[in-house]
Inverse folding.
């Protein structure tokens, strides 16, 4: 059974599919479980606009960056998005290959960091939901350790997407927001 046909049972879930989300941290379009003290959260902000663009979860020497996008009602977009990612990496001189994971076909990519001889390896996973798709970018120990890979995939499945009801063109990033009540640390902290 692949992610395309078991998402409704195993996740990631749509907000409308759950009754209560009390124990989640609400980032607007993405909600993540709040009950695991071993997970560190980071938000990624687009420098030029100050807009939140992703939530990154650090766990077991791995990172999982999650981003949610709008999708059409009828067709999923992950397969096309995965192929576009592959084309982008190849155009930049990187290598790509497809791997089977708990989320059907994933894309593994290897490329050089700008101005460095360091090679970076990432795995892109994705799941189509009702009028959204969730992309995860995995880096670190989860790429080589099966037990850690399973834990990171479970973490991805625990994410809840709040698509909202506004009409949006397919592929548009769903809006993220800082959780209510959070205050930034003082400058110089």
């Amino acid at each position: 059974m692949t992610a395309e046909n078991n998402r409704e049972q195993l996740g990631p879930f749509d907000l409308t599919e759950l009754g209560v989300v009390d124990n989640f941290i609400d980032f607007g379009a993405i909600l993540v479980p709040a009950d695991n003290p071993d997970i560190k959260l980071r938000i990624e902000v687009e420098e030029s606009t100050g807009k939140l663009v992703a939530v990154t979860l650090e766990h077991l020497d791995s990172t999982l960056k999650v981003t949610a996008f709008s999708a059409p009602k009828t067709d999923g977009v992950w397969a096309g998005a995965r192929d576009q990612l592959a084309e982008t990496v190849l155009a930049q001189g990187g290598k790509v290959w497809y791997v089977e994971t708990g989320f059907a076909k994933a894309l593994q990519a290897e490329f050089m960091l700008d101005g460095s001889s360091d090679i970076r390896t990432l795995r892109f996973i994705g799941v189509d939901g009702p009028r959204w798709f969730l992309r995860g970018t995995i880096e670190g120990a989860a790429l080589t350790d099966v037990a850690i890979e399973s834990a990171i995939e479970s973490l991805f499945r625990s994410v809840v997407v709040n698509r909202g009801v506004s009409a949006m063109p397919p592929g548009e990033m769903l809006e993220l927001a800082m959780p209510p009540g959070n205050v930034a640390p003082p400058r110089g902290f």
